Amino acid sequence: MQNRTLEIGVGLFLLAGILALLMLALRVSGLSASPATDTYKVYAYFDNIAGLTVRAKVTMAGVTIGKVTAIDLDRDSYTGRVTLQLDKSVDNLPTDSTASILTAGLLGEKYIGISVGGEEEVLKEGATIHDTQSSLVLEDLIGKFLLNSVGKEPRDAQPDN
Amino acid sequence: MRQKSILERVRLLGRSSIDVLAVLGRSCLFLFHALVGRGGIGGGFQLLTRQLYSVGVLSLAIVVVSGMFIGMVLALQGYSILTKYGSEQAVGQMVALTLLRELGPVVTALLFAGRAGSALTAEIGNMKSTEQLSSLEMIGVDPLKYIVAPRLWAGFISLPLLALIFSVVGIWGGSWVAVDWLGVYEGSFWANMQNSVSFTDDVLNGLIKSLVFAFVTTWIAVFQGYDCEPTSEGISRATTKTVVYASLAVLGLDFILTALMFGDF
Fold this sequence. Notes:
InterPro entries (chain A): ABC_MlaD, Mce/MlaD, MlaD_Phospholipid_Transporter
Mean pLDDT of chain A: 79
Domain Mce/MlaD (chain A): 39-116
Protein name (chain A): Outer membrane lipid asymmetry maintenance protein MlaD
Organism (chain A): Pseudomonas fulva
Order of helices and strands of chain B: HHHHHHHHH
GO molecular function, one term (chain A): phospholipid binding
Oligomer: heterodimer
């Protein structure tokens, strides 16, 4: 049956194409089957967010617990406002937790690391993380090093919001 | 040695531009009639399946083999550059993004123009020169509906699928070179890739690109066959034109599409 083998070939070809799309979706772009996990939003204000991008991950103890969904400038305090979307399962972050912008490897991407504070109260939807540590800017560091003032001046005051 | 007068040159210029416009108009009318004007594909599923086989399935081998090698070469080159900066884990994301955004759609379309496009042109051109097309018309069978439409649709369907298969095979070849041969850590290879590749921005945009390329390539191929001079020389010229025009159109359109999709403006 010449016609039959031909049709089987075409059917296999179409299946292979659809399978390829599925594979690209799941394995390569990491599209999860259930994207609508429960999340809540938290804001953090940074003096300098240099290099942080939307969709960067938010980690705690190296485990990814959320992602950055928006970055904009706060007009009143002239600081960068970063919106973090955290998993609902991690709802026990103390209000005085610290958010810092970290770099993965030497040339890697920027991400946000959260370290736990000691407060009893926990961060709720729409809350703000006050204790932040800005991104390390190489030029600033070199400038300070040239002026031989690394470690002598107090750390930049945190923005109050 | 008769010197051409200025008026004569102007006339030649006008004539050649009229010719170009006439071809463009004919090809648009042709496309319109073949796709919408005459009510779908004649002969239904049978003819389409046959064309899908000769256009799509038979192109599978060349697409898989070249995808494999391109993925492997990308991984090798990427590794040798990235390892200087100690970030060889980024090989996965580099291979995946290059394949999904550019090389998958473009190289597949170029291969498709050479492998399937030229065959379509030669086949239809030969039908025309042996007067099969006009005899079909004579017995009341519409060649646009029974010969052209199935081939157009087969091209539109197969090229995006081939491009997807190309990307998957290329990424697999890249992972084989990077992970199994060069010793990049497998976890970070895939994790980096999944972090940086987005389904809508990269996979779907690549798919849209290959849909556009499929449309243009198949259109050019089938039209050149249908419009060729019905001589053996005419067929060979039309086949050459198909490959040249289709390749140029794909590369030019790729630039425009990339600027629109990834150009940030």
